[in-house]
């Protein structure tokens, strides 16, 4: 029976359209000796708000369960993403930050992958980052970091200490924060009247078009569209003035908000709103159909992995992503189907994946004894990974992908 909840943006009714069942924290990689009786689980389900059309999780996981000293996601782990953030930083420097003594704030600066460029350019900046371990890595790069969760109160303190900002930026962070009203009121208060808030997050349009259901996990609370973003911005005196589609992380949109009435919205905003209408992104039937496709991928993937096991093939996974927790826990994929998962992140190696407990090993272990098949959990980094793992292909190895459908390459 689909449940209902109260929208975190407008307070209207949210109606559930897909239930992923019992799920662990997607970034909780425990040591093998952990008492797994104490592993945290919650019900992961998504719904659509009948009022503002925001797609969101039905249940909220406490923020400090997810973002803490040992948060193991390091943004600099991908060379492609390092370049992506450096390019964004250079663009901001040439545009919004080109005036006298500019000030830029980043929410969720993580290991400083973007703000490092600001620090090196001598630009006044501040990263707001609650996860202590990654914040320390940013600080070691010369980035000025404040270890806290961003909200209206934090914004007021920053404005009092540093003055107002010319630009505020957030990548893959805003969609993590359920208390959106407080965050956007804070952004509005911290921005100069001429300033902008630029943020990029996974796009619901791409998630639906590609059935990339693994973008749905504890940390991703909201799934934005131009329409829902426009509505949430309006409630805090902000206006959606530009959008740009990005190919990173399987398809994102970079949104630009400005204080209402300060800038003329670009044609790209109207165009994306039109496309969303055509794609039916706010229609319950579109989202119910998405759910049916998720069930097909689940059945096809478990069917393939069971067949390969029966044939005696060696199968491992590649990339211990947060996203993959949704896949392994929805499909019931544990070490009996996928022997290990390789990942470059030291904070994940020697541990096991959340919920289904697949051991995380180093890329060297992967290379020491190539499997017959590698299930690509980090499919959003496919080009980068396949380019550096050509020896695996040369040894006869094949990749298994499950977005937009289950296929072997
Ligand atoms: N911007 C980086 C990191 C994304 S991961 C990138 O795109 O790769 C999300 C980050 O947001 C984490 O580092 C997490 O600690 C941080 N975060 C979560 N809640 C936050 C909040 N309320 N304010 C600021 N940062 C937050
Ligand atoms: P990512 O897909 O960026 O995000 P999320 O965890 O939010 O789903 O995670 C990529 C993971 O894959 C990360 O743990 C680092 C790892 N990785 C590798 O092991 N090798 C690589 O070449 C790349 C690009 C990533």
How many strands, what sense, and barrel or not for the largest sheet?
Answer: 7 strands, mixed
Radius of gyration: 21 Å
Termini Cα gap: 38 Å
**Mean of all residue-level pLDDT scores:** 98
Strand order of the largest sheet: 7-6-5-8-9-12-11
Helix content: 25-40%
DSSP, total strands: 18
Separate helix tally: 14
Oligomer: single chain
Name the hetero compounds present.
Answer: S-adenosyl-L-homocysteine, thymidine-5'-diphosphate
Based on CA inertia axes, which overall geometry fits? globular
Structural class: alpha/beta
How much of the sequence lies in strands comes to: 15-25%
Catalogue the unreliable spans: none
Keywords for this entry:
409 residues; alpha/beta; 6-stranded mixed sheet; 14 helices; 34% helix; binds S-adenosyl-L-homocysteine; binds thymidine-5'-diphosphate
Which helices and strands appear, and what pairs or packs with what?
Blueprint: E1 4-6, E2 13-24, E3 41-49, E4 55-57, H1 63-66, H2 79-94, E5 103-107, H3 115-120, E6 124-128, H4 132-140, E7 145-146, H5 152-162, E8 165-171, H6 180-190, E9 191-202, H7 204-210, E10 222-223, H8 226-234, E11 238-246, E12 252-259, H9 267-279, H10 284-310, E13 315-318, H11 323-331, E14 341-342, E15 360-361, H12 363-368, E16 373-376, H13 382-388, H14 390-394, E17 398-401, E18 407-408
Parallel strand pairs: 5-6, 5-8, 6-7, 8-9, 13-14, 13-16, 14-15, 16-17
Antiparallel strand pairs: 1-2, 2-3, 3-4, 4-10, 9-12, 11-12, 17-18
Helix pairs in contact: 5-6
Bound molecules: S-adenosyl-L-homocysteine and thymidine-5'-diphosphate.
Thymidine-5'-diphosphate is lined by residues 73, 77-78, 319-323, 343-345, 378, 380-381, 384-385.
